[in-house]
Design a protein that fits this description.
By secondary structure, the chain is α+β, with helices and mostly antiparallel strands. 54% of the residues lie in helices and 19% in strands.
Length: 249
């Protein structure tokens, strides 16, 4: 009788020790992965801090990549996917923006990566809608007529000022090309607090409008307004007219 109790007791101890060992091993592995991820983030932060980019007309918003890194760090489970998108964004900023103009396709691809990075800070149930209404066979689509990074401020503002906690929160982003006119339209719900902050800010949009004016003259229109806590930004650029003017010039 006592031998059986002794055997059962020893067996239970062995099982418990095995479970403890497995848990300890998994914890150690998790800590290693976490440490590796943190080291990667530190490397990226150093690269971003050393990045000094200037285009001919404007400087890149210095908060852009810091916001991106913060988003990645707060959602480790999506880190590898998002770092891949960040790599695409960095390549675009470092190499493509050296040119005065890029193709509409390149700017939209960059915008899609930027949107994917910003999605990390949102709930999977958040109402985010991205629509691209463009015929890729349109000759304008592959022409170098778009100033690089013109979509950054509008997209970043939407994610920054959206009232994420509101049950009816949403962001809608539309890229469209019709009859030579490119349209980027962004609609999002903002809170009363964000609305007040917005009225005191807007420097980024002012800089964007000045840059667009220098490049496209009268061939663009930028509208921003708020109605019932819904913010709407619409940028229209007449690329066909601008192309024809460039040809005449």
């Amino acid at each position: 009788m006592y031998n059986w109790f002794w055997i059962i007791g020893i067996s239970i101890i062995i099982v418990l020790l095995t479970i403890i060992f497995i848990l300890f091993y998994k914890l150690q592995k998790s800590e290693r992965l976490k440490q590796e991820a943190e080291e990667q983030f530190e490397i990226l932060e150093i690269k971003v801090q050393n990045l000094r980019l200037e285009t001919l007309e404007a400087k890149l918003n210095p908060h852009l990549f810091k916001n991106i890194l913060n988003s990645i760090q707060s959602h480790t489970y999506q880190a590898y996917y998002t770092v891949d998108k960040l790599s695409n964004v960095l390549n675009y900023v470092l190499y493509e923006t050296k040119n005065k103009f890029v193709t509409l396709k390149e700017e939209i691809d960059f915008s899609k990566d930027l949107i994917e990075i910003n999605k990390v800070k949102l709930s999977p149930l958040f109402d985010l809608r991205v629509k691209i209404n463009i015929d890729e066979k349109d000759s304008i689509y592959e022409k170098t007529l778009i100033a690089p990074l013109i979509s950054v401020d509008l997209i970043e503002n939407a994610f920054k000022h959206t009232d994420i906690q509101h049950p009816e929160a949403f962001i809608t982003i539309l890229f469209e090309l019709k009859k030579g006119v490119f349209t980027l339209s962004i609609t999002n719900r903002i809170s009363e607090k964000k609305k007040m902050e917005k009225e005191k800010s807007g420097l980024g949009l002012q800089t964007l409008e000045q840059r667009l004016s220098l490049i496209y003259g009268d061939n663009f229109k930028l509208d921003n307004f708020v109605e019932k806590n819904i913010h709407v930004s619409t940028l229209k650029i007449s690329l066909l007219e601008y192309k024809n003017q460039m040809r005449i010039t």
